UniProtKB/TrEMBL annotation, chain A:
GO cellular component terms given for this protein: plasma membrane
Keyword Cell membrane: yes
Listed InterPro entries: Cyt_c_biogenesis_CcmB, Cyt_c_CcmB_bac
One Pfam family linked to the record: CcmB
Protein purpose: Required for the export of heme to the periplasm for the biogenesis of c-type cytochromes.
Record-given protein name: Heme exporter protein B
UniProt-listed GO biological process terms: cytochrome c biosynthetic process; cytochrome complex assembly
Topology term for the membrane: Multi-pass membrane protein
Source organism (scientific name): Sphingomonas adhaesiva
Transmembrane segment boundaries: 12-35, 42-61, 95-116, 123-148, 154-174, 186-210
UniProtKB/TrEMBL annotation, chain B:
SMART domains: AAA
Protein name, per record: Heme ABC exporter ATP-binding protein CcmA
Organism from which the protein derives: Sphingomonas adhaesiva
GO biological process: cytochrome complex assembly
Signal peptide: none
Listed Pfam families: ABC_tran (PF00005)
Amino acid sequence: MGALVWRDVRRGYAGGGATLVVAFFLLVTVLFPFAIGPDAALLARVGGGIVWAAALLAALLPVERLVAPDLEAGVVDQLAVRGVSPVTIAAAKTLAHWIAFAPPLLLATIPAAALLNLSGDRLALVAAGLAIGTPGLAALAVTTGALVAGLRGAGAVAGLVMLPLAVPLLIFGAGAIDGGAGGLKLLAAVSLLLTVGGPIVAGAAIRMAME
Amino acid sequence: MSGAVRAVDVTVARGGRVLVEGIDLAVAPGGAAVVAGPNGVGKSSLLRVLAGLLRPAAGHVEREGTVAWMGEAAALDPERALADALAFWAAQDARALPDVRVAAALDAMLLGDLADVPVRFLSTGQRRRAALARVVASGADVWLLDEPASGLDAGAVERLEQLIAGHRATGGAVVVATHQPLALPDAAQVAL
């Protein structure tokens, strides 16, 4: 399990995955000031929500690379004959994906907050929310990757599958910026549900994709 | 080492279509079986059923001992050096001295000189040999090889035959799906 996680983390960083996610995240946060104008007070008010929406879109970026390549390359088959269950594979991938994308994303919220004129307090709430929500987001990304593996146009389908399921994370994550601890607790509940349920669903999807 | 595979009245279906019906197969320790037949008849699917990667539509499969699988895909990370890519799998096998096993397996497949070369630079035939090296390094009791000779030169095919013979001599079992002639003495023939 440890070797599996380490392999995926290494591939996540080596493939430029983390850099791409961070660059995309910052690019989306830059788009909003351009779109709604340089009104600092307005940006400060909507900035937290923008960071959350950008994080969601950035998390969608690597979905296609998470599961499908290993199914095609026969890696999943080789693990299966060694008695590694698909659920374990999915859990390892979830943990590895979180390690590969969440810490760089959390660091990137600092320049994003500067771009959006977010105060230190609001940045702290956004960062705390992302720290709590990203495990759920990682599980959702791996689950989506497993569900769409092998489909034609998997990238577009992945967006349609993943974004609606990520809406609760977005609502409670962005809500916690104004709602405080209550919002964070609801966010944690949703994140926990996704983190636990994701590998089970992803494992079943991997099992089906093998056959 | 003692590996065995037994399939009882197995039916294999893919995508709702029955490919193979009523297969009975028993490979005892030291035994071998060759699954032969034209393209698309279900050789690979039958082998996947024997490996437990695919559920049979009917019947059941029993395996004794650990399994090494060689499929169509190499399952070696393209960016890693050959020895490192194989060492990852050797570590998954949970046997003693994975590095020594990998080095020995590379030598057995005449890949010793390529140990430091990233997998993406290997030719098709070299990749097939690397996949065989993983089977050798696994030390598994049952070898399930899908078209192991495809892409191999004459020397490597001979080497493959020797390795299979050596594996059987120590009590291992081998099932090969192939459309190429392989010298496997006393192997059970399964014609699909």
